[in-house]
Design brief:
Elements lengths: L1 H5 L2 H24 L5 H8 L10 H6 L3 H4 L7 H22 L1 H28 L13 H14 L4 E4 L3 E4 H16 L4 H52 L6 H20 L1
Antiparallel strand pairs: 1-2
Length: 267
């Protein structure tokens, strides 16, 4: 309880994901160092039930794998890079848009990335393209969705980086995207597809949120202008009487009163 109170509420979700991913990787790493047949039993009993196969039939029989594949990682470096992006962009997203948008981005990135992985690898195989048939593991599609969200929602937001200084979100996002192309473009087409789908999902959510916030600000500015104009008209009425208003000003006063009455009725 004391530890929970010390942690920033906005960061609790980041710590929870971090501990979950690290725990799974440590258990998997330790079990694989044990003598046979424990590693084989672990793989068949646990790992095979969590990773996402490129086969639609396997997904049909294990639908939970559309999310659980994010718990597994190929290596410690794979996990470390995902945690770096999780904290770098996840913390910004939580501060900018809150935990609901974070959950939509993170889980949505996993589902969309996994679904795209199964769909497009199946289509490519049907078209005669030779693929390695590697399963999908890792939280990369989820964390890359956080990157995409920030690029869409706040591309000019600055990120302080040690030894480099401050870079804008879109610059860091472009660098991450280029690294993905270099890392996955050569041999792991399925992994690249999952990453691209996660980026597009997050970017779409970010653009939607940005447009929504812009509309809200515009409505607030318009409301403030209408309220200021209403007060001017009331002051004119108090000073010179209702007859001093022009036809246009009377219409504005009546329209504002009607809007106020309508909003009161709804409340």
């Amino acid at each position: 309880m004391r530890l929970a109170k010390r942690i920033d509420p906005d960061k609790q979700i980041l710590w929870s994901i971090t501990l979950l991913l690290v725990m799974f990787w440590l258990v998997d790493f330790i079990v694989r160092q044990l003598p046979a047949p424990l590693p084989t039993q672990w793989t068949r009993g646990v790992v095979d039930q969590l990773y996402l196969s490129c086969s639609p039939d396997a997904l049909w029989h294990r639908p939970w794998t559309i999310v659980t594949y994010t718990l597994l990682h190929n290596s410690g470096l794979h996990l470390l890079l995902n945690l770096l992006l999780l904290w770098l962009f996840g913390e910004m997203l939580l501060r900018l848009s809150g935990w609901r948008q974070f959950v939509w981005s993170y889980l949505g990135g996993a589902v969309v990335g996994g679904g795209a992985f199964v769909l497009f690898t199946t289509l490519l195989r049907t078209g005669g393209v030779l693929l390695l048939g590697l399963p999908l593991v890792g939280a990369s599609a989820s964390v890359i969705a956080l990157v995409g969200y920030m690029v869409g929602a706040a591309p000019r937001e600055e990120i302080p980086l040690p030894l480099i200084g401050s870079l804008r979100v879109w610059q860091v996002g472009l660098f991450v995207f280029l690294l993905l192309l270099l890392a996955y473009g050569g041999y792991n087409v399925g992994g690249l597809i999952a990453h691209l789908a996660g980026v597009l999902w997050g970017c779409g959510l970010g653009l939607y949120q940005r447009r929504r916030q812009r509309t809200t600000r515009q409505q607030a500015i318009l409301q403030d202008a209408q309220t200021a104009r209403y007060r001017q008209l009331l002051e004119k009425v108090q000073q010179s009487g209702y007859q001093s208003l022009s036809d246009e000003e009377r219409k504005q006063l009546i329209d504002h009163n009607n809007q106020w009455l309508d909003s009161s009725d709804h409340n």
